[in-house]
Amino acid sequence: MSEVHAPARLAARPAATGHAPPPYFSCLNLHAYYGQSYVVQGVSFDVHEGEIVALLGRNGAGKTSTLRAIARLADPHLKRGEIWLDNQALHRMSAWQAARNGVGLVPEDRRIIGGLTVEENLQLAQIETPRG
Known about the structure:
- By secondary structure, the chain is an alpha+beta fold.
- It has helices at 63-70, 95-100, 118-127; strands at 25-34, 37-47, 77-85, 88-89.
- The chain has a domain at 25-106: Rossmann fold, CATH 3.40.50.300.
- Strands 2-1-3-4 form a 4-stranded antiparallel beta sheet, covered by helices on one side.
- The relative contact order is 0.19.
């Protein structure tokens, strides 16, 4: 499991301020590396229930690297920061544990079947026997 250096928390996730409901998903000050290359630098954002969020940026800006770090994949290596999903500390989990909690990454190589819905493509992907 990746080492993540984050301050200890008394609550299960960061406390909300004011009267707004706490975020369902939070990324707090994420820093991740491919080897010595510093690719995710201080990314923070919250997503509340019912919100739809897009991660936008030019090629090479770190969008895919940020999503890979959130999904807890081996690369890039998350060295600092916190990732919270519905009171679950994803930053303390491995990729398979995060997947069991509903976090996954659909690769951008577009190996999909065009005539199927998104849900049908995802169901079809689950049929293949796991490798490794």
